Amino acid sequence: MTRPVTDVVLPAWWHPLAQRAAAVEGREITRFLPPPGSRARASAVLILLGEGGEGPDVLLMQRAATLRHHAGQPSFPGGVTEPEDADAVATALREANEEVGLDPASVTVVTTLPELWINVTNYRVTPVLAWWHTAHPILAIDPAEVAMAVRVPLRDLADPANRVRARHPTGYIGPAFDMDGLLVWGFTAGVLATVLRLGGWERPWEPGRIVELE
After folding, report:
1. Total count of domains within the chain
2. Of 56, 94, 157, 169, which has the fewest Cβ atoms less than 10 A away?
3. What is the CATH number of the domain that holds 133?
4. Would 27 be classed as within a structural domain?
5. d(C-alpha 73, C-alpha 166), whole Å
């Protein structure tokens, strides 16, 4: 199924990602998809790509270590859909504003990825892909929820030296990125790996090193 793509003028590096993301299927991203008839809670995350001094980058944040779920884990801005949210896009933009002070007017939503599933917390998640056309300073609004926010260059994510795999205590092994002490794993790493592939940034790497998660 093809999802709508905005008709806004995008930088040249955006075009392959925008077109491929609009047509990608959930099973091409992960084997964790919402089960038929699932009562999983609706949520959304914002995959915000901007252009910094080192080329295209993505906005990530690290969740506070005291949270009940996903404590200390790097992630995209996002959260659970509230009754006042019109759709997944509204959820993603509202959460990003609340978590890192993102101005929704600085963002153009390009398309969405298929709805995915986080089985551990039973959330069905819609990733919202957006262009940060007017980037501005960001910060952790509530330290009780967000420890820090950072823009990560896509070239660092694509660097084979930073590609690893992470093994969860349950034994599950999935993709991960290890960059100067910032270890991105789980749902976020899987989606980022897909973004790199669809955008044409992925470089060959040898999936050898495994990082053990506590």
Report:
1. 1
2. 169
3. 3.90.79.10
4. yes
5. 13
Q: Are 139 and 101 in contact (CB under 8 A)?
A: yes
Burial class (CB in 10 A: 0-12, 13-18, 19+), 156: middle
Give the Cβ contact number of residue 67 at 10 Å: 14
How many residues appear in the chain?
214
Domain carrying residue 108: 12-153
* Angle CA 61–98–39, to nearest 5: 85
Q: Which amino acid is at 213?
A: L
- Say if 30 falls within a structural domain: yes
Q: Which residues contact 37 (CB under 8 A, 6 or more apart)?
A: none
Question: Are 67 and 75 spatial neighbours (Cβ–Cβ below 8 Å)?
Answer: no
In a domain, 214, yes or no: no
pLDDT tens sequence for the chain (214 residues): 567 777 678 999 999 999 999 999 999 999 889 888 888 999 999 999 999 888 999 999 998 755 555 556 899 999 999 999 999 999 999 999 999 999 999 999 999 999 999 988 899 999 999 999 999 999 998 887 888 899 999 999 999 999 999 998 989 899 999 998 899 999 999 999 999 999 999 999 998 899 998 8
